[in-house]
Design brief:
alpha/beta; 11 helices
């Protein structure tokens, strides 16, 4: 990169971070707070005039920064994602913390798991960033199979890791999550934070409600996830907020080879399962 282009890139980044680095997702989901006015009370002085002025301003507002325009951007993200991933091999999604360091045992386990899955014939899909995501992509390339990253625009910039064969960037979390669900034959969940939990429970909800066909959801590290599993069994189940069979939607293991075997067995058995009474799911 020459000096001129570097300055342009630096200026672009600085402009993006103005105003608290608001992302496109935030803009879509935000709405200005309006004062509450009781229908039985007279309008405050000047309110009618302000309303008229706001309506006139809205009529002349630039359409390209409105929500209807965002619908077209959302559609374009779906189209680009579907187009890029339509012909990938059977793949497994690996999730986990972006904060996990390369020397961490979790990182090494994710590399090994992805390597085994790649050797078994699966591509690997991650969020495309650092930590466990990087480990999954590294293991996929080490195993000689396709390494895919679906990155997301965040207030703090998340750059793609260096182990990607296919790299996609998304502005909207829900579009990105659709790609994970649609193109993954299993979810492997390594220790992570709220984002990892979001992916975990999104998958469980869609399987529980039969929106997608049943696929393995496997937790790695029994010590890390033990408290959550105990709470599900000892609090949620007795309260009746889940059914006993819902417990079977989750598996837990500390062994990458066992995880790979579960995924492979589930994938092969899925060929023998067909339900002609239902439409095919998004997967």
């Amino acid at each position: 990169m020459n000096n001129r282009s570097k300055k342009a890139a630096d200026r672009y980044r600085s402009l993006r971070t103005k105003g608290g680095a608001i992302t496109e997702d935030e803009r879509l989901l935000s709405r200005p707070t309006m004062p509450l006015i009781s229908p039985t009370e007279p309008l405050p002085h000047g309110q009618a005039s302000r309303d008229d002025h706001a309506f006139e301003r809205a009529l002349n507002f630039d359409f390209t920064v409105t929500d209807p325009w965002r619908v077209l951007r959302i559609m374009s993200e779906f189209v680009n994602g579907f187009d890029a991933l339509a012909h990938i091999p059977a793949s497994v999604a690996i999730f986990g913390s972006a904060r996990t360091k390369a020397e961490d045992s979790t990182y090494k386990a994710a590399v090994e798991t992805a390597h085994l899955l790649a050797r078994a014939g699966f591509g690997v899909i991650t969020g495309g960033g650092p930590g466990v995501m990087e480990a999954g992509n590294k293991g996929a390339q080490d195993g000689g199979n396709l390494s895919i990253g679906c990155n997301i625009e965040l207030p703090f910039e998340q750059f793609s890791n260096q182990y990607l064969d296919v790299s996609l960037d998304f502005n909207y979390f829900f579009v990105r999550k659709t790609m994970f669900i649609k193109y993954s034959s299993a979810f492997i969940i390594f220790p992570g934070g709220f984002g990892t939990l979001d992916e975990l429970f999104e998958a469980l909800t869609l399987i529980q409600t039969h929106k997608v066909s049943h696929f393995p959801v496997i937790l790695y590290d029994s010590k890390y996830w033990g408290g959550l599993i105990k709470w599900i069994r000892e609090v949620m189940l007795p309260r009746g907020t889940i059914s006993p069979q819902d417990l079977n939607l989750l598996r837990i293991s500390d062994n990458p080879e066992e995880i790979c075997n579960w995924v492979r067995e589930a994938y092969h058995s899925s060929f023998n399962v067909s339900d002609t009474n239902r439409e095919q799911s998004i997967r």
